[in-house]
Amino acid sequence: MITGKNYIGNQLSSKGTKTYKTFNPELNIENAHVFTEATHEEIEEAVSLASKAFKVYKSISGAEKAAFLNAIADEILALDDTLIQTYCSETGLPEGRAKGERGRTVFQLRSFADLVQEGSWVEASIDTAIPDREPVPKPDLRKMLIPLGPVVVFGASNFPLAYSTAGGDTAAALAAGCPVIVKSHPMHAGTGALVASAIIKAAERTNIPNGVFSNINSSGIEVGAILVKHPKVKAVGFTGSIKGGRALYDMASQREEPIPVFAEMGSINPVVILPEALKKRGATLAKTYAGSITLGTGQFCTNPGLILGIKSASLDAFIEDLSTEIVKMTPSCMLHPNIHGAYNRNKDTAMSQPELQVVADYGSEVKTNYAKQAIVTVKGDTFLNNPKLHQEVFGPFSMVVQCEDETQLEQIIWQLEGQLTGTMISEDNEISNYQNLVSALQNRVGRLIFNGVPTGVEVCPSMVHGGPYPASTDSRFTAVGINAVKRWARPFSYQDWPNSLLPEALKNENPLNISRLVNNVQTKNKI
Amino acid sequence: MITGKNYIGNQLSSKGTKTYKTFNPELNIENAHVFTEATHEEIEEAVSLASKAFKVYKSISGAEKAAFLNAIADEILALDDTLIQTYCSETGLPEGRAKGERGRTVFQLRSFADLVQEGSWVEASIDTAIPDREPVPKPDLRKMLIPLGPVVVFGASNFPLAYSTAGGDTAAALAAGCPVIVKSHPMHAGTGALVASAIIKAAERTNIPNGVFSNINSSGIEVGAILVKHPKVKAVGFTGSIKGGRALYDMASQREEPIPVFAEMGSINPVVILPEALKKRGATLAKTYAGSITLGTGQFCTNPGLILGIKSASLDAFIEDLSTEIVKMTPSCMLHPNIHGAYNRNKDTAMSQPELQVVADYGSEVKTNYAKQAIVTVKGDTFLNNPKLHQEVFGPFSMVVQCEDETQLEQIIWQLEGQLTGTMISEDNEISNYQNLVSALQNRVGRLIFNGVPTGVEVCPSMVHGGPYPASTDSRFTAVGINAVKRWARPFSYQDWPNSLLPEALKNENPLNISRLVNNVQTKNKI
């Protein structure tokens, strides 16, 4: 049930007076539920509970954390149609997408449950003592990852389940042993409230301490700022715009005690189409990319916003084909009137740049809050000299850059900001003649794709979702996949610690039967 | 030979006019060599060379990097007495310490060489494709760590070899595949120049691209600031004061593209002596700690600056014993008149705090630049209420806090800033009654020591040298041990990439024979 209240730990609370509603962009009406913004007192209480809960939660077993994460997944599934309908009513996204994203969310929770149940993720490392070493004895040292402390999570507007309340950041932080305070996304506050209730139910059912999870309502920026600046908060996860992520990063790094912020932000996901591929498969590629650009109304952080080729008759034909294909796509609803408004403004700004040609702009009337897809094209020189053309237009929009030659194409890649992905489209082994382009692109991205589309982010250990700034604020971590847990943990050493008092992961007997580095050998053996 | 010039890549250069000399604190005279500060042009040239060299160096084999690192170790050893004498003349430290630190430096270089020669450090991970998966095919994803780009290293005054020019930060960054620009420490510019010449020789001997290493002279802060703000610099390593580290962190996080800074800074390394241990072994502990506090004239980042006990007759006796023992220690020289001056100022500030008792202050005359060791004591209340008492006094100084009871002791621990180490001194199993103290201490430190001293940092995989701020600016990494390489690398994914074009670490055939996570199983098998 959506109460419109905050979860301050396990307690529903609404001490404030400021309220807001979510919006149904498909119907272009406000939704009924009224959400009450958290007060300073409620925020303080949530942080205080999280800090207290951390003292217990940091040391509970992997099995207990796994039970909690699996229970969250179960409780989310138990929300059934209520969740799907609320999701759709707050996003304009279709039911199929809602169910797919719910599946991804549940899969992520269960993946982290498996990870902590198995236990080797703590990277246990043991160097046993050498008491008679000269000139000084070697002490016994044992290391493992431990959680950082309470984490604040800011969800993404475009993934109301998989990257929001119980999404990747929350699941990873809970797996690491960190309490989580979610700053609920105001555009899908109802979906968030339902998921929060599932988390609270799961916590109560699996005896997780009160305060390990809170859900804070807010439609503005002040509440988030209070949370990020709070001395008891130890890390921040964010998915959203460059402006928003950078603001949080700045607050966090200017604290007396700076804290890590992992913000996954904007990306235009450059796609390089090599000449032979253009010649042989231009028409097919145009179809494929028209689909990728408009998928989810272009509201993916991996949306291909920049297509790079070397000018040729084939490139001209591709641009024509892409323009033809994209206007064939059925327009769809955007997440919110604000996002729709921003799309139109940013598209207009892009389209009004000098020396730019609009080659496709969906002409027919569309429903309110529906996006009209568009394709523009510029010369390489124009792109190089106008940084405004490098900015993301969040929505079904892409720009084809016609480079003078390979040298200019390479120059453009080196000049790009950091990106989540880069794609190379190659005919057979053509790419082996363009290793300089691959090298340049690798330097700007977190993931390189061969002959595919950047949309679609597989959840698996080998996935990297992140990249050089501004794709993320710390390229040394991924936001997707089990390794995302590393963002919320730090290595910790025990020196000459009595075996009986060591955590299970580091005891001689290896009671958890985890893989450990023992005197430089990876093993599950006892000591 | 010490030329006093900068190494801009492989070239000696001195275009500037501003010069400085190092100082022999033992003899209280300036050393003869004249060092020329780098100009803006030289800095630009070094960064530009590093950025160009990165394009090649990022992809060279582990074997080639290992040869380079081992050659650096060889060339440092080949400097022989010249290096040792220069080191002593610039630090006031004895020859034994110089040789010990050289041994550590060489060991670190060879450890990183072994790491990259073996190759598994890249954390290769492979998820093979499932083309017939429903509803969508699973792509092939392969991940490994790749280097960040040019790294600027600021060496430590107190480790002119092991944490300076070719120290832990430099060795780790070169191992990761990052070019390094060292901002030479002005207090040991001669030692730095000799080591830089060894690195350049090694680079030339092993065909490492020009620009992978530069050594920049500077006696002020401007040169460092230019380096940290330079868009082509991608990460920073620093060892030194909180003030210095924080200034660099702030510059780096305020860049248009923020970059990671790993600064290992101050620490007072709290030591908790439990009541039974005090009763049974107070006198022995006093001797041991008098040694640890004065080791290296107290100029270690792990120096025990804070000793915590619960008030009792045993604690009184310990304080008396420690006071007696510490004045028996022979005073020794500090690194530099500036450090000596700061020690005296900070000691005076600490000693002049209200409700503080000075129980030992070395009274006899000492040579110029020699430190007079001291012990002070305060009540728990006094310590809690005066943050000035929490600040590091870099030198042979320690404070004993007499806590009212266990509750107050725990409260004090929770209130401490982040620390590199925490130590628990326990009689037999006494510690098992104080798990709340252990839990609190763990939350504030990077390494917990049982019945030992914090001085002495073993170089091994299970070491963590780092900790919550301000022990370091990013507790998720260690500055000591092979895992320090992780600071300078980021994960990177290839999706559906042709096997023949993948880096060796990710090819089906596993030509490097490294350990990889293949479809969730850690193995050296081929695919």
Helices and strands, with pairings:
The structure is a homodimer of 527-residue chains.
Chain A: E1 6-8, E2 11-13, E3 19-20, E4 23-24, E5 29-30, E6 35-36, H1 40-57, H2 62-78, H3 80-91, H4 95-118, E7 125-127, E8 141-147, E9 151-154, H5 168-176, E10 180-183, H6 189-205, E11 213-216, H7 222-229, E12 235-239, H8 242-253, E13 261-264, E14 270-273, H9 275-294, E15 306-310, H10 313-328, H11 337-351, E16 356-361, E17 374-379, H12 380-385, E18 397-403, H13 406-415, E19 419-425, H14 435-444, E20 445-450, E21 489-495, E22 516-518, E23 521-523
Parallel strand pairs in A: 7-22, 9-10, 9-12, 10-11, 12-13, 14-15, 14-19, 15-18, 17-18, 19-20
Antiparallel strand pairs in A: 1-2, 3-6, 4-5, 7-8, 8-21, 16-17, 22-23
Helix pairs in contact in A: 2-4, 2-6, 3-4, 3-6, 4-5, 9-10, 13-14
Report on this model:
The structure is a homodimer of 527-residue chains. By secondary structure, the first copy, chain A, is an alpha/beta fold. The first copy, chain A, folds into two domains: 272 residues, Aldehyde Dehydrogenase, Chain A, domain 1; 181 residues, 3-Layer(aba) Sandwich (Aldehyde Dehydrogenase, Chain A, domain 2), CATH 3.40.309.10. Chain A has 14 helices and 23 strands. The first copy, chain A, has a seven-stranded mixed β-sheet, with helices on both faces. In chain A, strands 21-8-7-22-23 form a five-stranded mixed β-sheet, with no helix packed on it. A five-stranded parallel β-sheet of chain A has the order 11-10-9-12-13, with helices on both faces. In chain A, α3 packs antiparallel against α6. The longest helix of chain A is centred in the first third of the chain and has 24 residues. The mean pLDDT of chain A is 97. At the A-B interface, β7, β8, α8, α14 and β20 of A face β7, β8, α8, α14 and β20 of B.
